[in-house]
Amino acid sequence: MTDTPSTGQRAELARPHAAPEKRGTPDDRPGTPAAGPAPRATPPGLAGADALLGTDTTRFRHDYLEVRGLRVEFDGFVAVRDVDLTVTQGDLRFLIGPNGAGKTTLIDAVTGLVRATGSAAFGGSELLGRTTHRIARAGVGRTFQTASVFEELTVLQNLDIAAGARRRPLTLLRRRTTTPPAVEQALETVGLTAQRDLPAGVLAHGQKQWLEIGMLLVQDAHLLLLDEPVAGMTQAEREETGQLLRRIGSQRVVVVVEHDMEFLRSFADSVTVMHQGRVLAEGTVAEVQNDPAVVEVYLGTPAEPAGDVPAGTVPAGTVPADAAPADAAPADAATREGEPR
Amino acid sequence: MDIIAQLFAGLSLGSVLLLAALGLSLTFGQMGVINMAHGEFMMAGAYTAFVVQGVVGDAGVSLLLALPLGFVVGGLLGLLLEATLIHRMYRRPLDTLLVTWGVALVLQQVARDVFGAPNVDVRAPAWLSGAVEIGGLALPRTRLFILALAAVCVVALALALRATPLGRRIRAVVQNRDLAEASGISSRATDRVTFFIGSGLAGIAGVALTLLGSIGPTLGTNYIVDAFLVVVAGGIGQIKGTVIAATALGLMQAFLEYSTTASVAKVLVFVAIVAFLQLRPQGLVSVRTRSLA
Fold it and tell me: Per the UniProt record, which residue ranges are transmembrane (chain B) (predicted)?
């Protein structure tokens, strides 16, 4: 599924001919296959994703998220402390940790919803201290833990809002007559074309989560912070979402907070484990699973300093899927366990 | 024939209530701000009509000029109030109530100092004087004009909220402030615009009131309670509910007035509202329904 410059708004946005970017090389031109992982088979529901994602390799390929010494304090309680985190493009990063580890607070801090000290930069520009909507306009998109869409607006209106964030004030009173191509593409990508005129509130839970991702796509976000994007999804839906995230992640910086270990093992390129507001471990899935400190946090080994536990005492690869429900919300855990795998 | 006359009187009263309450359905209904100075924004709109007539002279031209100008004057006052005071206390409704009441008193005194305490009159244009005769029934043209004006305002507001990107933003911010911000919408800017429109509608209502009688510094106080009642009875944040409630209250008042006296009718209407809200605290149109307009 390669794209031609004539389809999709992406091509216009990249403006390959009108304003060639300095760092653009011929290989980066739209129409050539996207850099990164080899092309994968497209799941049927995600047809068209490449049209939306595939042409924008020129602009942001060197962007990365860099968090240094991040600290968040609520009335004396330190929710996040000394967090360093670097996530690059093409590295699908999963952020895991028990409840209260500070994962969501970290996302809130990066997106300006809570006050933080330290530094969080994306594409070289500092995000901390800016208002949330300015951060969003700088290309940072996020989803919320509870599937958050504008429930009383239609699916199409939800996407329109995300697409029009940078609209100039005077155009706000003009009625739109046609749907922008990027919005059409996003509808198709997340499989909600048939539901476009339904209020988002009546969508199924999984569809809402896809709508959230669709909103980030039309919002032109290049750093995506996804808070439990597959919670409550069926196995098939998880698989599709994971494939979509992979494709998004090849050209954008993606951080996924997720409790589901099976999902993590299938799709994570790298994992950061948080515990009590700090980064506990970081590495590939295998590295993290064999990290004694991580094993201790997840399995609750007796109180011995983490470093002293010999790696051999715990069987390798023992961050089991069973560990996930323990730190998920009870209702969530119940749904998950009840689902066929 | 009497019934039809009362019906018209009720609809006419309802349209006045609706004009007064429509702006509140945005600022109070949508944003949750209890703005006691809303009535004074109406008063400002009425004095705008008075000033415009003093400058222009011709009653017809001045009315048509005063409507948009009243909107701007009311809107700017609202914007000023929002930017200086209200935005500091979005999570403190009780403080907002007290502060805006104080602002209302200040505005009344300013009007007294500038225009004098006695009421003043704004001449109605010639094409609105007299009445239209329909089947032996005389319908005053000013009343018909206000009915039409209310209808235009409702339709314009509903269209703006439903069909324009700005309206989508207003609704988005009301529904989920954090998500709206995360989607790149400035909730502060949207709040200001919402408040401007809501207050501007009060200005328009004020201009319309000059057609019904003389105006004075306390014009707004006569309407503020009724306007809040309409919004609450109609269901917070629901324009549809506001329209229905305004019409129902107008009709009720008119028919009760016909069979009793004006004061008794007012008491009965209040009792009816209290009883209604006991049965249905969420108002006529529940907030959880999906349509706004």
Answer: 63-81, 144-161, 193-215, 227-251, 263-279
Distance CA A166, CA A219 (A): 9
Task: Parse chain B into domains and list their residue ranges.
Answer: 2-225
- Write out the two tokens for A95: 């952020």
Burial A237-250 (b: 16+ CB within 10 A, else e): bbbbbbbbbbbbbb
Taking an 8 Å cut-off on Cβ atoms, the answer to whether A201 and B290 are in contact is yes
- Average pLDDT on A79-105 reads 89
| A260 SS3 class | coil
Residue A274: strand pairing partners: A279
**Is domain A9-167+178-338 in CATH 3.30.460.80, yes or no?**
no
At A159-212, the pLDDT tens digits run 988 887 666 655 665 666 667 788 888 888 888 888 888 998 888 888 888 999
* Structure token digits, residue B283: 């108002």
Q: Does ipTM come in above 0.95?
A: no
CA of A234 vs chain B CAs: smallest distance (Å): 25
Three-state DSSP state, B246: helix
Model pLDDT, residue B195? 93
Confidence of residue B41 (pLDDT cuts 50, 70, 90): very high
Cα-based distances in Å from B72 to A20, A72, A162, B197, B223:
45, 43, 30, 9, 20
Contact at CB, A149 and B179, closer than 8 angstroms = yes
Q: Where on the phi/psi map is residue A90: left (φ > 0), alpha (ψ -120 to 50), or beta?
A: left
pLDDT (0 to 100) of residue A339: 40
- Closest chain A CA to residue B289: A152
What proportion of chain A, given as a percentage, has pLDDT over 70?
A: 65
Q: Which helix (H) or strand (E) holds A137?
A: helix A132-137
Residues 6 or more apart whose Cβ sits within 8 Å of residue A284: A269, A270, A271
Picking from B172, B175, B184, the nearest residue to A166 by CB comes out as B184
SS3 at position B152 = helix
Looking at the partner chain, which of B164, B166, B184 has a beta carbon nearest the beta carbon of A136? B184
B46 pLDDT more than 60 = yes
Residue B176 to residue A148, Cβ atoms within 8 A: yes
For residue A94, give the nearest of A259, A289, A329 by alpha carbon. Answer: A259
Determine the pLDDT at residue A167: 62
Q: Say if residues B95 and B30 touch (Cβ distance below 8 Å).
A: no
Do A150 and A211 contact (CB within 8 A), yes or no? no
CA distances from B269 to A81, B248, B251, B254, B265 (A): 60, 10, 10, 10, 6
pLDDT, tens only, B49-61: 999 999 988 888 9
pLDDT in tens, A240-265: 889 888 888 888 899 999 888 888 88
According to the per-residue pLDDT averaged within each range, which of A210-214, B6-10, B75-79, B181-185 is highest? B75-79
CA B75, distance to chain mean position in Å, is 12
Q: On the CB side of A213, how many CA atoms lie within 13 Å of its CA?
A: 33
Task: Report the pLDDT averaged over residues B208-231.
Answer: 91
Domain ranges for chain A: 9-167+178-338
Whether B49 and B71 have beta carbons less than 8 Å apart is answered as: no
Which residues, 6 or more positions from B273, have their beta carbon under 8 angstroms from its beta carbon? Answer: B229, B233, B249
Nearest to B175 by CA among A129, A157, A205: A157
Name the minimum distance, in Å, from the CA of A293 to any CA of chain B.
Answer: 34
